[in-house]
Each structure stands twice: as structure tokens, then as C-alpha cells.
Amino acid sequence: xxxxxxxxxxxxxxxxxxxxxxxxxxxxxxxxxxxxxxxxxxxxxxxxxxxxxxxxxxxxxxxxxxxxxxxxxxxxxxxxxxxxxxxxxxxxxxxxxxxxxxxxxxxxxxxxxxxxxxxxxxxxxxxxxxxxxxxxxxxxxxxxxxxxxxxxxxxxxxxxxxxxxxxxxxxxxxxxxxxxxxxxxxxxxxxxxxxxxxxxxxxxxxxxxxxxxxxxxxxxxxxxxxxxxxxxxxxxxxxxxxxxxxxxxxxxxxxxxxxxxxxxxxxxxxxxxxxxxxxxxxxxxxxxxxxxxxxxxxxxxxxxxxxxxxxxxxxxxxxxxxxxxxxxxxxxxxxxxxxxxxxxxxxxxxxxxxxxxxxxxxxxxxxxxxxxxxxxxxxxxxxxxxxxxxxxxxxxxxxxxxxxxxxxxxxxxxxxxxxxxxxxxx
Amino acid sequence: xxxxxxxxxxxxxxxxxxxxxxxxxxxxxxxxxxxxxxxxxxxxxxxxxxxxxxxxxxxxxxxxxxxxxxxxxxxxxxxxxxxxxxxxxxxxxxxxxxxxxxxxxxxxxxxxxxxxxxxxxxxxxxxxxxxxxxxxxxxxxxxxxxxxxxxxxxxxxxxxxxxxxxxxxxxxxxxxxxxxxxxxxxxxxxxxxxxxxxxxxxxxxxxxxxxxxxxxxxxxxxxxxxxxxxxxxxxxxxxxxxxxxxxxxxxxxxxxxxxxxxxxxxxxxxxxxxxxxxxxxxxxxxxxxxxxxxxxxxxxxxxxxxxxxxxxxxxxxxxxxxxxxxxxxxxxxxxxxxxxxxxxxxxxxxxxxxxxxxxxxxxxxxxxxxxxxxxxxxxxxxxxxxxxxxxxxxxxxxxxxxxxxxxxxxxxxxxxxxxxxxxxxx
Lengths: 426, 426
Fold this sequence. Notes:
Chain A contains 17 helices and 14 strands. With 426 residues, chain A is of the alpha/beta class. The first copy, chain A, has a six-stranded parallel β-sheet with strand order 1-11-10-9-12-13, with helices on both faces.
């Protein structure tokens, strides 16, 4: 990791820069596939699954029989169950309790959280089965009360889905599961096909094609969870920090891929060399050493003047994950403005939040933490406003409405009040 | 209005269809303007303001002197103040009160709502000054605690902003106000210029160019409130309804423009003719008669079999505004799943929510109410998750994390726990 000592503030933006996430070069290909899926439905989905995923499917839906014969290790089952319990508890506590507000006498207004009826979860394929993401996206959907919870994930070459994915999907209550990945999955959920119901919101990570497809369908067809980018972590360290713990946290991010963003910020020069040594020692025995080395090569340790600058540069970076791996973490934590999820103290590794503490691991990357929340129960509901005005209430606020509508030259708006006030006055 | 009697369910989708909102034909023009603003800043903003808005500005920011000399009618001032009070009360009550959840012993997780630091409000120009939208977008920004609240609105030919806009902006606490409209405004707020600070989220309505520009910048540069479409209302009527009230509500929507969507749904044939008569009578004296007639010509009265179908077709339409203009509104209200804002009973016209009841009038159109909420206090905050795990807590959930990480082949994730558990065991 490059060490940058006491950078000037005008250089911070450059230091913290992420790769430019411009997927528009892929739009041509992606739009063509989406168009065919919209027009031809399942037929196009099956055709592109053969082309892209090298798998020929007769039926894209996972059958009841396939769901019934799931077998996974008892220890993994127990781990998934513990994680699911914690995720359930944390998201269940987020249920909205609105109150009715009488803004003026006789003018009652309230919000009601109503589940999005149909949601689609996308779980990428790849070397390992991301069953943890099934829990993170599915459990809040179930708590919210989504009626239809669709899950799409690419099958292996034999047309099978990993049993841990199936177990997690059954556990959270996915209603329909499809062996479809990539652009095809996003298109199928956005438009609906003969087999796949059209959903109103799509959740989940994916490669650049999935991301481009989500961007395109989000313009007018369907909502999406948030824009995507490579995963990232910032670790804040000081003299109290444990270098081994920090190295393991930095590598937890680095092993996700060569584009992962890994940053350590400290105001204490003495912690840098021990962290570097620990990194090297841990890298050597890491199965994904090569990938992690690439990410680490692009990563930085930034030494700043004082705690004030630590806080300032952290908020400027707006990391997806922020680990404050120090003894006196509370002071810094209070002043975090921009971050997805914050991990406090020496015994709170990012992997706890990735799996089993209960918080969600679908979080804003790429600086989007300046404006976006991670996935949470809110992501699965709409807050509908209601209002109920009594004749007396309308007499109180009606004249203001008439004046404002007249000044905006909207006379039918005014008349809707005038007619009612006349009727009340009779 | 066309009357459709007892349509078959398979025809509902066609009956409720909205215009296709494909703005991609504008992307070429819009992208060029955005590119120049990103590269040239204020200079390009001023150049395009001259080209598109026919106004040559030396400075684009509204000066303190201009803010100090605002004069509007006392009656309008009082109306704005009353509306602002109610909007404040309703949105203030939405402040997030999170709780700390101990998901496992020693594993504490919580959410904290933190204001988006910099937000941009766009207020369109046009025949009348939309000061009500300044209140709707600005008041929750202030309550949330946004540090920088930018407002952009196009000036008139003399380079001035309407005093009612200035009054409302000062009232809500806008921090900087710019005489910039259209694509230029969206570009300036998305990228920042010498004068206009870059913001993290852009709110507000606009014409097709503004909408296209918001779509493009939302792909990677900045968050936006929600996708846009023409405004719409559905009114539910029965024998108890007042035909004059209903006609005035339908026209409140129709007067917004020829593309406005206006629908009445009823299971009582006898209310249709009285509503049609009232519509004709009110249209004749409406200043915007011509525009409203065009909208009404494209609109429908749908007669369905029973209350069950009324509810079903309403949820299928997912209207931005839903007025249940009947005496027994509560039964229907309870079963609304898809709507932006719901108005209950005979004395709750849409114009109350448009101006002064306290609810927000920036709402999901075009069926987006299936997945989106209207603007509310949540729109101005991010919910950051925090977690704090004690050594004892990590001993409880650590083994599950190790098992899950191993099964997802993420060994550094596992190691981050293993190292800590070893340290605890010493």
C-alpha cells in the first residue's frame, strides 16, 4: 500500500478518487438483450442463458422437487440460521410506526408504510454461492410484507443452483426462484415473461452488465435499490489499534477483487509499519492472494495531522464500510456524516456486518453514501400519505389555499375549495 | 370524458395506460449541454441561459440586495406562512427515532439518520411562480439539517425571480439561490460550477429536458428525488358524492396541462351524468379552459361492478393522487396499496395537499407509486448503520461468521474473526 504522508487538503479529492464508473459503452449490447427479452419473453431468456452462461435450460423456474431435496452441512445450516435470526431482529425493529398529526384543527395527516407488492432479488453467480446476500435482501422483503419475492441467480453448467442458495431462499420465504443470471435476469424481472412475474423494484449486486441493465431499466420501468460500484472499506487506526486485526480487515475488502477500494487513515505514524508487516504476512497465506495483491497495490495508507483531519477526510471519502478500529472510537463515530455502515472498536470486524450481526451488507459504494442509505426495511415499503379534513378544518386552511392557488394561476384548484366552503356556509 | 362501462379485467391495463415516457430522443442534446457545463462551468451556464431562456446574466446568483427588497401581498404572505407551518409540523413529526438493538448478547446495532449535506432544489419557470414547491422541497431539507440548500429557478426576461419565490426561499432557509433553469440548472448542481456548489441530491419537477437531464446525471453523478411524469388524479365516487366537488377535483388536475391524467372510478352509474354536467359548467368559466379540455378529452370515467373492483382497479392504476370522495371512505382507504397521496372524504380536495394541509405535493406519478414514496423527511437523510461488538459478543456470533465466510470462499473475512477470537482466548 502506498503511504501518503500529510497530504494538502487540495489533494484529498485526487487521493480519494474512485475509478470512473461509466457503463455506457455496454449500453448497446445490454439494450439489445433487454429489447429481445421484452418482446420474446422466456424464449429470449433461454437463448441468452445458453449464449452467456453456456447452459441449456428446458425450464427456468426451480421446481418444488429441487427445493425439497436441498441438503447442506449442519454447521452451515446453523450458521445461516443464527445470521438470519439477527438480520430478522435488526430489520424487524425498523418497522414504521407513524402517528397522525393534526396540523390545523380538523386537518389530520399521516403516513402509512405499505409493502412494495412485488420485488426481485438478484444474486450473482461466480466461484462461491452468495447465500448471505439472499438473507440480506430476502429477510427485510418478508418482514415488509412483499407479496411476491422473486429471486434470480445463474445456474452452474449443469443447470443447478447451489444448495446453500436454495436453503437460504426457502428460509427467507422467496416465492419463486429462477435459474437466470445477468442481463436476462434483470430484463425478465423488469418486464415480466411467461414464467417470471414483472416486479416493481429490483435489488442486488452484479457485474458490469447487470449494473448497466439495472441502470437502463431504472430510467422508466422499475425502481432499483441503489447505483453500484466496487466494494470499499476505510479503516481508522491509532496507537491503540491492533495491526493484525487491521490487516485482516483491509484484506477482507481486498479479496473481493482487484478493483476493491481499501484505505487506512491514521494520525499516528507509528502504526503504519506494523500494519504493513501484518498485511504481508497475511497475504502470503491467503487463497485469493493474487487478487488481493492487485487491490492492495491500488490502495493507500493516509497519514494526517490530527483527529480533526481524520474525521474530515473520512466524510470526504464517504466509504461504504468504515471501521473505527481504535479504543476511543465514540468521539469519531459521533461525527461521521458520510458512510454506509460503521464498525466500532477493535472487536467489530466488517465481516460481522457482512454475515451475522444483523445489519445489512448491501450498502452504497463509490461515494454514494453522501446521498444513499444501505438497504433497510424502508427499501421495501412506500410511505403513502393520507389526509382527512373536516368541514371546520377546511374553513381554517381553505382561504390560504384559495390565495395560493390564485397566485399560481390555478383556478380550478381554488374552485375545489371555494365550492366546498360555500356548501359548508349554507 | 369517455365513459367505460364494466370493462373486462384483461382490458384494465390498456384502459389505465399512461403515455410512454421515453426521453432518450433528447439525450443527445441534453448530454452535450451537460458536458459543456461540466467542462466550462458558469460560462456554459450563462451561454445556455442566453440561448434557451433569452436572458443575458452577468451574475447568476441572487444577491443579498435582491433578497432584501422582496415585497408581496400581505394576504399571500399570510397564506404562505400558514402553509409553511403545517408543512413544518407534518414533516417535523417524521423525524427518525431509532433504537439500539442487541441482536445477540454483546452485539449492538443501530441506525442513525444523518442529513444529506448538500441538496439542490429545482423550481420550474412558466406562467406562474411555483412558490408552493419551494415550501414542499425546502422545509423538509431544513428540518433534516441539510447544511447547503441550493435553489435554481429560471429568471424572467429581465433577469428577475418572482418575489413570491424569493419570499418562500427566504422563509424555508435556502442558502443560495440561482437564476438558472433547465438543463443548465441540473448540470450546475450535479457537477458544481464556480458559483453553484455541487450537491449530492437534486429534487424538483421540470419539463422534458429537465427530466432527461435528471435521468442522465442520476446514473452516476448525483441522486434524484424520483422519476418524473405528468401529474394525475383518480377520484372514487359513489351515490353519496357531490358532483360539483368531484368536477372541481378532476379539473384541478386537468388544468395542469394537456397530458395530465384524470380518472374517475365508480360502482354507481347514477353519479356519472351529474359529474359530466358539473364538469361542463365549470369548464366554461375556467381560465385554462382550452388546456383542461384537452386533458379531459383523454380522460376516462370507469364504471365497475362493485367496491371490490373499485379497490382492485385503483391499486392497478397506482395514482399519484387518490381522492376517495365518498361518505364511507374508510373501508376503501384501508385497502389502498398503490398511491402517492390519499384524500379522504368530501371535504378533502387535492388542492389542500397541494398547498396547505401539511403533506408533500411532490409525489410519484406514472405508476411509480407501486415502488416509490412521495418526498418526505426520509428523502433528505441517509440512515447510516452502526454496530459495536464486545469480545463476548464476537465469541457468540464469530463461529457462524467463520463458517459462512468459508463457504463463500472469503478467507480473509474468516480470518478477521479468527484472529480476534484467538486474542480473546489468550
